[in-house]
Design brief:
By secondary structure, the chain is mainly α. It has one domain (about 1-495). It is built from 20 helices and no strands. It has helices at about 1-10, 10-30, 35-55, 60-80, 85-90, 100-115, 120-125, 140-160, 165-185, 190-225, 230-255, 255-260, 265-290, 295-300, 305-335, 350-370, 370-380, 385-405, 410-440, 465-495.
Length: about 500
């Protein structure tokens, strides 16, 4: 009887969490079966059918419809592979379940794509390959189609093998490959390509160093002091204020280019205002939360849970705003050439329907195929807790902001995964150093081995799975040339068939 009464009196939050559990179970089932493939195929069929009806009067309706379907396919692959950067750390830290992370990411990605995605489409559409450099005007839309097919296929393959790759680099490599084989080197912007290659090399290193530095700072200021709760009450509001200011800048500069055009002073003022508000709000909130906690690391980690969820949501919003261009940028270029210039018109035209295709495709790809890569990023590289996951997300935002200020286009995927590596390798170094120092004080004779080999008591512990490191780095190295080569092959096949 008491059990039934307790069941009837369950809190609303318990029921809501059960709903997320059901979502998680459903997405796990879908991702392990052909049902997910069926839903993805149905999405593309619906996109193609609606596009065919809307574009029936256009003489190039077939190519335009094919472009929209391929843009939807690309969006599915972006959702399946790229969104793991933002939600993987929160899932790996056990702050969000897989189901709640997928729902939150899908909502934020869709909102970012629809509300702020139109401003970044032109970079992919016209910034790398110029339509004016093609001897035959018909070759440019075929090149964009080939780029979409090649990039989507490569990202699909990377998702299957469990490697989080940069969708930006896949699209750029595909556009370069298609442009090179169809129009020659004259159609390419050499400076842009050099900048992209530099960013590919720099971004994981910067992300790793930034995350390791943030974790060492938190350990030094909070986790290794005498009174950790007092240190938390003093430093956490500063950290949260820094996070709010950083993510405000990230949101404006990466995800909302229309606000970015307002000028440096208004943007800086918004960031400082966000930092000040977050500091003022979090200071009493941290004090209240810390009042009932014990002075131990497990208690301190609870204080990082709310900002970790907020950080993951903001990164997802900015990712949706920025990376939706990877799916619909080539589509916009095709429409602009084949008589539908209204696709890029600020006041409407076909831009909103195409953004909807990109937003829905990213969200659906995440829900259907995302769990595999979310687990890879969040759980299978190194062990994360709320503090380390927070360092990963904040380091990702800071690194992308610094690169944007320097005019260096870098990959958020490479940066986030590099940050996870940085946290893991820093933990290895710090833990092994502490063990050696402790043994040096307690049993210095163990450090001396007559055969020159380390005794088992001080053997270095490995906290990063090296096999996953090699898989991911290998996928990074071949993304641009592989997608470019695929695009060249696809363009030759299309040009021959059409």
């Amino acid at each position: 009887m008491s059990d039934g009464k307790a069941s009837r009196n369950r809190s609303t939050i318990d029921k809501d969490l059960d709903k997320f559990t059901y979502v998680e179970e459903a997405t796990t089932y879908l991702s392990r079966s052909y049902v997910a493939l069926g839903f993805g195929f149905l999405f593309l069929v619906v996109v193609g059918s609606l596009a065919g009806l809307l574009l029936a009067e256009n003489p190039n309706w077939f190519l335009l419809t094919a472009a929209l379907v391929l843009g939807g396919y690309m969006a599915l692959n972006i959702g399946a592979n790229d969104v793991a950067n933002n939600m993987g750390p929160a899932v790996g830290a056990r702050v969000l379940t897989m189901g709640s992370a997928l729902v939150l990411a899908a909502l934020c990605e869709s909102a970012g794509a629809l509300l702020a995605g139109s401003g970044v489409v032109s970079t992919i559409a016209t910034g790398i390959v110029s339509a004016d450099q093609f001897a035959r005007p018909a070759d440019f839309p075929l090149a964009m189609l080939a780029a979409l097919v090649a990039a989507a296929l490569w990202i699909n393959l990377a998702t299957v093998i469990g490697a989080p790759v940069s969708t930006t680099h896949a699209v750029v490599g595909a556009v370069v490959g298609a442009g090179l084989v169809s129009a020659g080197t004259v159609a390419l912007d050499g400076f842009t390509l050099i900048a992209i290659a530099s960013g590919w090399l720099v971004s994981p290193l910067l992300g790793g160093l930034a995350a390791a530095f943030l974790l060492s700072l938190i350990r030094r200021c909070i986790l290794t002091g005498g009174d950790r709760l007092a240190a938390a009450r003093r430093w956490l509001p500063v950290i949260f204020g820094t996070m709010a200011g950083t993510f405000t800048l990230y949101l404006i500069l990466v995800g909302m280019p229309t606000l970015r055009g307002a000028g440096a002073m208004p943007v800086a003022a918004l960031a400082l205002a966000a930092a000040g508000i977050a500091y003022a709000v979090s200071r009493p909130a941290v004090a209240r939360a810390a009042a009932g906690l014990d002075d131990r690391n497990q208690s301190l980690r609870k204080l990082f849970r709310p900002p970790l969820v907020v950080a993951a949501a903001i990164l997802s919003f900015a990712h949706g705003a920025n990376d939706v261009a990877n799916a619909i940028g080539p589509v916009a270029a095709i429409f602009s050439v084949l008589g539908q210039g209204g696709i890029a018109a600020p006041g409407g035209g076909l831009l909103l329907p195409v953004l909807v295709v990109g937003a829905l495709g990213i969200s659906l790809g995440l829900l259907l195929f995302g769990p595999r890569l979310v687990r890879m990023v969040g759980e299978r590289i190194t062990r994360l807790n709320p503090i380390r996951a927070f360092c990963v997300l904040l380091a990702t935002a800071i690194t992308v902001l610094l690169a944007s200020a320097a005019g260096l286009p870098i990959s958020s995927t490479h940066t986030a995964v590099g940050a996870i590596f940085g946290v893991g390798f820093y933990r290895e170094w710090a833990m092994n150093r502490e063990r050696r120092n402790r043994l040096a004080e307690q049993a210095p004779d163990l450090l001396a081995s007559p055969d020159g080999n380390e005794p088992a008591d001080i053997r270095r512990r490995m906290l990063v799975r090296r096999a996953h490191v090699l898989t991911i780095i290998s996928a990074w190295m071949v993304t641009v040339p592989a997608s470019g080569s695929l695009a060249a092959i696809v363009w030759l096949l299309l040009s021959t068939a059409l």
